[in-house]
């Protein structure tokens, strides 16, 4: 028993000492070994946006949103064979938690697709190339009024700002910046103007055509009128007016009989 335990302890000690040593050995020659096959391995497949975001470590909400809207597989397949490349602005988890509560849930599935697509520009921009961007830059999203756009401006302080018209933020560090895919961190969700911009004022409710103003003798008609103000349609009000007119006509007819 004691010997067996002793053996186990010794074996565990050997492992504990050997594993880091082995790892150290494996890690040390890796760059040399990787140097030769690397170009081939990189060319073997298109970049995987999900893997890049996962590696970034703080993009789980955006990853989840990309998956639920199938924009991860969409982009990954578009990346295979693209000549112009893509640029993704990836909002951090902090960016999403900075949104007003319920913002995402208030969006329809289609609008969630648009929200994700509004963070994807169908062109590869290196950090230095942003100042060649011609504003407004179209994104992958579009709606009834055309493509959703971003304005990208390189500021004098060597910052790059991106604006939707609702949100302005500074482009953060690159999670990846090699053709054909650039992924930049942003600390705000790029809320599209088309979804979050000021809405045109609702067209004023149609003023029910009051018909003729109640005249002095028209007491029955003016008694009817308030009934139409509680949301009844203009048609109902008109019908009321017609009925009142009919009553009046009947009264006149009755009077003429006297
Ligand atoms: C991309 O990466 C994710 C996460 O690592 C993985 O689940 C997925 O299978 C990958 N997709 C492709 C097409 O390799
Ligand atoms: C990329 O496209 C080529 C040709 O269309 C196809 O053969 C290949 O399987 C694709 N690779 C991936 C990872 O989807
Ligand atoms: C974006 O840039 C265009 C062209 O410079 C300009 O007309 C437009 O007003 C800008 N929009 C926003 C939201 O800054
Ligand atoms: C760039 O964006 C930052 C916010 O991230 C803002 O404070 C700054 O004023 C912007 N600069 C320009 C030139 O728009």
Automatic annotation (TrEMBL):
GO terms for biological process: plant-type secondary cell wall biogenesis. It comes from the Eukaryota. Residues 46-190 form the FAS1 domain. Keywords: Cell membrane, Glycoprotein, GPI-anchor, Lipoprotein, Membrane, Proteoglycan, Signal. It is found in: Cell membrane. Residues 209-227 have a biased composition (Low complexity). It is a lipid-anchor; GPI-anchor. Residues 200-236 are annotated as: Disordered. It holds the Pfam family Fasciclin. GO terms for cellular component: plasma membrane; side of membrane. Residues 1-18 form the signal peptide. Belongs to the fasciclin-like AGP family. May be a cell surface adhesion protein. This is FAS1 domain-containing protein. It comes from Oryza meyeriana var. granulata.
């Amino acid at each position: 028993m004691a010997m067996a335990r002793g053996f186990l302890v010794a074996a565990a000690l050997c492992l504990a000492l050997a594993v880091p040593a082995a790892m150290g050995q494996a890690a040390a020659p890796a760059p040399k070994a990787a140097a030769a096959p690397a170009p081939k391995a990189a060319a073997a497949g298109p970049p995987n946006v999900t893997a890049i975001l996962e590696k970034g470590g703080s993009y789980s909400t955006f990853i989840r949103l990309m998956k639920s809207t199938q924009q991860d597989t969409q982009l990954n397949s578009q990346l295979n064979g693209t000549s112009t490349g893509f640029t993704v602005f990836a909002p951090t988890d902090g960016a999403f938690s900075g949104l007003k509560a319920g913002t995402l849930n208030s969006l329809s599935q289609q609008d969630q697709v648009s929200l994700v697509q509004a963070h994807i520009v169908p062109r590869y921009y290196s950090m230095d190339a942003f100042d060649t961007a011609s504003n407004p830059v179209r994104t992958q999203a579009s709606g009834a009024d055309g493509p959703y756009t971003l304005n990208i401006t390189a500021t004098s302080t060597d910052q790059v700002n991106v604006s939707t018209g609702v949100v302005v933020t500074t482009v953060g560090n690159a999670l990846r910046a090699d053709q054909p895919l650039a992924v930049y961190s942003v600390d705000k969700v790029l809320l599209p103007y088309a979804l979050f911009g000021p809405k045109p004022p609702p067209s004023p409710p149609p003023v029910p055509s009051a018909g003729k103003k109640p005249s002095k003798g028209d007491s029955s008609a003016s008694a009817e009128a308030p009934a139409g103000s509680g949301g009844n349609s203009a048609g109902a009000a008109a019908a009321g007016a017609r009925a009142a007119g009919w009553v009046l006509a009947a009264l006149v007819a009755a009077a003429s009989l006297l």
